[in-house]
Every structure is written in structure tokens, then in C-alpha cells.
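Q: How would the C-alpha cells look for this protein?
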Amino acid sequence: MSHATEVREEEAAGTVALERRFVPAFDAPAIGAWVLPFALILLLAFSGGGYDPIVRGQVGILLWWFVLVGAATGSVAVLGGRWAWAGVTLLAAFAVWTGLAITWTESTERTVAELARVATLLGVLVLALASQRHVAARHAVNGAACAIAVVAGAAVLSRLQPGLFGVQQVEEIFPTSKQRLSFPVGYWNLLAGLAVIGLPLLLAVAGAARTTVGRALATAALPVVVLCVFLTVSRGAIGAAGVAVVVFFLLAPDRLPKLAYAAIGGVGGLVLCLAADNRDALQQNLGNALAQEQGDALLGLTILVCLGAALLAAGVGLADRHATRPRWTQPGRKFTSVVALAVVVLGLVAFVGGGGPGWAGERADEFKAQTDTKGVQFDDAVSRLQTVSGNGRYQYWQAAERAKDTDALKGIGPGTFEFWWAREGTISGGFVRDSHSLWADALAETGLVGFTLLVAFFLFVLLTGAIRALRA
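A: Here is the predicted structure in C-alpha cell form.
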């Protein structure tokens, strides 16, 4: 027996012994780090997504009360070093600029509401960083992943068993959009975006949970989250899901077991989506006896798929813990980088050779066209997902660009795009509160100063996170 083989066997035996010695213990900081995102996400999700300014204000006051009490007691005195402080400073600067806009805005009321929103987000960031002072960030990730899984599960259940939740208000206000799953947050694109955020978080939990049960539960939640995104019929969210998963695997270490969990969850989600697509009455949310019958059948299938995913994930987890993997399954960074670069180059060659640029140009023209499909009833989700109409978004963004030109540095005032569109909009009819783009809104309402601060904050968070992940 070689020395290397002996070392690997000793490491495997040590891992098994560590797992056997693992005993859950009461850890107040870890519990707090887990509860904070879990409770916050559930509270906002089941309060209409936090759209109501009163709800946002109450949450913001509560968060800053925790921050102030923590600062007084010394529990939030350290936020994790200079990098954390740099991120907080950028977002705080954007909040200050939003507050200064009160002096030039068209609507003081709307700007104050936006200031309250940004201040609440700043409180979330400060408290989240403070909660990591004594514990690992994985507890916060676990809490957020669990909360999103609960929200996605409740959303899917509201479509499969609508009698448990009653008639949804959004379906009464927008009857033409009842096909699109929106409970509990009240808006299909918001629900889809939240579910997409949960995908890489659940993959991270599945690949790093300390127990086999934890890995199995995280993987079992993936098909439900995928089905939730499908039932929202949100085209942007589906594209974002692909980007999120790709970026996750670019940055994640030890990808092989995580690929297995992703494959299990992805196949399970695909099975559920195909089953939902073949149940027209359920998908169109007709609310009749046939829809109820189809909902019962899909609920049974969902339970079976989730149980199967959990069992397969448990098998992968046990194999990963106890089996000795060949060395070729753990390639080095250089080899992985070369393979990734080769895949990108081949993909670009195939895209160009297959007429990709022309196809992309046609889709761009379709997106820019002033067609409106908001009130159109689609036969099924797939027929809508095959369109790329922007539903007026391109025109909203053009209006935001023109609004910025009124005062390039300061903008028209946070929260006032609605008034600008009412006067200068190029599409008649309809109510437009914002431009459907965080970046376009920031550029129009806060000018180049606010836009630069916001972009700097996001780039800082993404780049520093990516660099730290790759270094690890």
C-alpha cells in the first residue's frame, strides 16, 4: 500500500469519526444568524412582498432598532473589516444622495418613500454583516435558502390546492393574469426572482450541509422551486436562473457532488414542469373541477419527485462522505480554467456559425416593438415563453434616458418616474409606476451621481465576493 493511499484512508476515517461525533448544540449567535434572514424573507413575502410602504417602514424601523440596540450593547461594533465597511459606505452614500433629492424632487412624498426603502435595505445589510461577527456566513445562507423554499412551496401549493388559500386579490384586480402564479408576494415577476435567488443558495446548502439529511432536504426543495418559476411564466427569471446556476458553478469549489445535486433537482423540476404543461386547466388556473383534479394529481407527483430527489441526494451525500474519489474527479485550477475557456470558445464558434447574431438581432427587434401582451391569454406557459416581447419595457427605458437629460447629475427625483411618464410617455394608456429596471430608474431619478453610487455598490459586492470565492 502506497503512502498516498494510507493518507487518503486516514482522512476518510477521520471524516467518518467527525460525522459520528457531530452533536447539535445550542449556539445562540448561529441561531440568530439563521433566524434573521428566514424571518425577514417570510415576513415580507407573506405581506404582499413588502410593496406596501407601511410594511416596509415597519420592517425598517424594527431593523434599525436592532442595529441601535446592538451598537449600544457592543454586539454589532465590528462589521467584518474594511471590505464590509466599504460596501456599507457605498450603499449609505446612495441613501444620503436619495435624501438630498428631497430639495429638488417633483414629489417630496414619493422621494421620502424611496428614502425609507433604501434606509431599510441599508439596515438589512448592516444587520446581516453584524450577525456574521461570531459565526460563519453559512448560517445566514441556510436561513435564506429555507425561507425561499417555504415561499416557493406555499406558492406552488396555492395553485395545486387553491381552496386552502382562497381567492387571491391580485387575480381579482388583474383577471387576465390569473394564469401566472403570484401568491404570496402578489406579483409573478417578484415571486420568480425570489425563487431564482433560492436556486444557488439551495445548491450551496446541498453541497455543504454537515448532515446527510440537510443535503437531502435542500435537494428535495429544488424541483419545487423550479416548478414555481415555471408557473410564474416569467421569461426574465428563467434566463436569470441559467445565469445564476452557471455563476454558482464557476465560483463553487469541489463541483462534482454539487453537479450531482443540481442534476437531481433539475431533472425532478423538469418532470414537474412537463407534467404541469400537460394540465391546461391547472396551468390556466380555471378553478373548475378539472383543474382541481389535475392539481391533486400534480400534488401527488410532486411529493413523489421530492421524495425521490431526497433519496438520491442522500445516496450521493453518503458516497461523497465515505467513498474515496479518484484523483481525476478533483482537477486543479489550471486544468479547469483551460476546459472552461475551451467550452466558451466552442460555444461562441457554434453561435456565430449557426446564425446566432442574426437570430439575436431579430429577437432584439421583437423586444423593442411596441406590442403589448400584458392582457393576452396564452394557451400554455411554453407559448408565452417562446416570445420575447418587451411589453413596453424598451419604451420605458427610453423615457428614463430622456428624463435623465433634464438634469444629468441630479435626475428628476427618486420615485417620480410615474409623473414623468404620464407627461412624456410614448405608449398611450396604462398605469406605469417605474421603468421596470433598477438601473434605468436610478439613472432617471437620481442622475449620474446616484447611478454611479448604485453601480459601484453592486460591482463591489459581486467582484469582492467572486475574488474571495476563487481564492478560497
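Confidence is low (pLDDT under 50) at residues 1-22.

The two ends are 32 Å apart (CA to CA).

Upvote if useful.
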